[in-house]
Structures are given as structure tokens and as C-alpha cells.
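hi support,

uploading two proteins for the ticket. first:
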Amino acid sequence: CAAHFEDYFTRGGFPEVVEGEPQGLYLRELFDKIVGRDIVQRHNVRIPKLLKELGVYMIQQSGSVISYQQLQRAFGYSSINTVRNHLAYLQESYLLYEVSAYSYKLKERSTLPKKNYACDIGMMNSLSTKATDDFGMKLETLVFLHLRRKTKNIFYLKSSQYDIDFAVTEDRKISSLIQVCFNISDERTRKRELSSLLNAAKKWKVTNLKIITWSNSEELHLEGVEIQVIPAWKFCLS
């Protein structure tokens, strides 16, 4: 089971890759085809190179909080509307999934920065130009993709007191809070993740709390609540 999970973490879940196609070449070509055929031609995109660069960047930065203004400055877009449209095209083609910050106020949700997650770990690996792997962000992306198969009601939470990767809602209320941390063994990291989770749980009155890691497993009882620390492979079987 562990070996299959590690393979998925590297190669992703596209059937052709799973069945033996060379991962890097196939997924890069697939990305190019989706951008060129499904987006550029359909929407008559005037600067295909800019759209492609944005797509590669967003997949590389999977899970990051990035504003339209940041992207406009970074890529030299003429307007924020064009940035918004290009991101929408990438999402419509299922290359990216958007996650909003949770708020009771719908208007506030629409104005807060969004997170975007890559559609596949393998594509994230194949398009990466980073010198070193960011295993934490890859694991967060993997956890998101698993959650996305079950529900679309996924948000993130951020304030001065907490920074929560995923808040899952049912009947418009937060039903569970999920943190993703590749390794929680370091004491400073452990304290940060637990403090953030407990503060958010208290604020939003949530008792279903999880921390997803690469291999750590334990049950914690703190401040009257239970926190499950679960290895990612086990979480993905749930």
C-alpha cells in the first residue's frame, strides 16, 4: 500500500501515466494540448504565451494564496479582468480548482484572495522548475484532491490567530477542520499547527479536527477536544 501511495505521489493519477506512459513528456504534452486546443481556440485568447505561463505558474504554486493584483504585476497583464478571465479558463478546463476563504458573508468571500490547486500531482511534478521539491505543498494538493472527490464545500481559514488549510462545510456550517503538515515531529512546527487548529476550532465551534501528515499517526486530547493525526495514505483510503 505504501509503495503504491508513493508512486501516486510522484506520478499522479492520469490513467495513461498509471498504465506506463512516460510521466513528464506525456503530462507536459497534455497540458500544452489543453491550453492550446481547449482554451486558446475556444476563447480566442490573444496572447497564448501569457496564458500558458500563467497556467504553469499556478500549477507550480498549487495551494498558495495569490491575488489578482499580484498576478497582474508579475505577468504584466493590462487589466485585472484579463487575469480573472484567464484563471477562469484554466479552471473550466479542470487544470486548476479554486478554493475561497470561508466567511458567513458571501460578498466578503468574493473579495478575499483565493487559493488554486493543481488538478494532478503528476502534472505538478512534470511542470515544476523548482530546484527542490516542496513536499508540503504537494501533500496539501493531494489532500485537497481527495477532499474534492467527496465534496465541493471546501474553504480555507486565515486570521491573525490561525491559518487553516481546509474547512469543510455541511449545511453552511463548518463540520471539520483539516491541517496538512508533512512532518509534525519538530516541536516548533507541532506547536504552530496545534495552536492554529485549536484557535480556529474554538472560534468556529468545530470538534472534528485532523492533521494529515506523511507518516505520523496519533490521537491527541487537548483543551477538551480530540485531534486525529493521520498518515496521508490512510486518509486517502477513507
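and the second one:
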Amino acid sequence: MKTEKQKAFTLIELLVVIAIIAIIAALLLPALAAAKKRAAQAACLNNMKQLGTGMMMYVDDNGGAFPGIASEHSGFNAADWIYWRTNTALYPPIEKSPIVAQVGSASRSLFRCPLDLSDADRLAQVDTPDGPYLYSYSFTGYGIGAYPDFDPTVNLGMSSVFTGAAGNLTAYIFKQSAVRNPALKIMLAEEPGSSSDSPSGGNAINDGRWEPSVDPLTNRHGGKANVIFADGHFEMVTSEFGDDITNSMPGL
């Protein structure tokens, strides 16, 4: 009994199928890439929401006082909002940061945007034994004696500042009650991790302090940055919004 031969694809039919698959892939890949980027943006925002919650809980538990500035120029203090220094032989690890304890999460990924992908610029600009700042977010800190008063005894906030040697510290505590219009003042900022996500192509984030008009906001989220305001709510804002100190200086 004869059997019918199985029909095979011709070369032309195979090429047509391959072409159709390529067209479908070309149509789907941009949509998939956009969806992946939106998911990473949402993860970044979720990070900041948790940090904002932790910050507010810290303030509530400490008599209305904000945590420390975590600046490379101020030196480590146990009250710093983030323990970012990489020399864990001398300093506690980031998982022990005060505001992390408030939200019950000890993951270092909480402090970094998934779209903050490169450490090259951070590593290139390091000139202190503290090491690079490997995270994406920072805390508003005008510090002592800053504009507009230039009074060396006044902390303009929003973070507390501790100066002097260990055992002989001077504490410049900044309290939540000193923030005017907290719904309008940026508390936690998202800074550039590299020149590629900086609006000016400038330096990458280098410590836990965001000094407005000096440190830009990132533009990694479609030209905007995620920020948390002093009342705990979030927004996406432009770098120009961050450059305007009326949107972050607590006393204005």
C-alpha cells in the first residue's frame, strides 16, 4: 500500500514565515521595552514611597526631629538617615540605616532605582576614604550657614547636622515643625547616577545629601525624577523644578 508523501515547506514559504516573525518582533519589542521601563519606574517610586514612610516614622519617633544629613563633608553620625559608606570595617552597613528599620526592610536595593545602571562615573569621582555613593536617592540638606542668612549657627534644614569630633559633637537639630508648606517642599530627591541621566551631563550623585541648585535632579524617567515631599506625598518633577529653591528650602 502506497503512503502519501509528507509535504515540506518550500524555501519561499519558510522565508515568508521568518519575515512575518521578524515584523511581529519589531512591533512588539518597543512595547516590551517601554513596559519594562515603566515597571522599573514604578519600582523606583515604590522604593521612594517606602523611604518616605520610614522617614516620617523616624521623625514621629524622635520628637519631630529629622535624621542626619549623611554628607561626605560632615563625617559619619549614627543619626544619619542612610549608612552609605562602603568601608564596613569602620562604619555600619546600609541595612542598618535608621529609616530602613522603620519600614522593616533591610534590602540595599531599596535605596537604588532599577534604571540607575552604571557606577563608572561614581567610581571616577571618588576622592575620599568613604568610598562611592552607590545609591540613587538623597535627603534635602541646606546645612549650616547657607543662603539666605549665612549664619554659621543656623541649620536651614531639612536634615539635622552634627559637627565636631566624636565625643564633642555639636548637634544642629532640624524639626518637622520648621518646614513651611511641607506639601510644597522636596524632602527626598532622585539624583543622577551618571552623566547619561543628568540634565546637565554633570557629576553623579556622591553622598546622601541633596543640595538644591548645586545637585541636579535626574532625568532618567522620561525627563523627570521621582521625589517625596515633606508631607509624605510623591510627584514626578523636572530638574528645573528642583533647581528652584522655593520648592525645597524649608523656611521659605
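thanks. also noticed: The longest strand covers residues 186-190.
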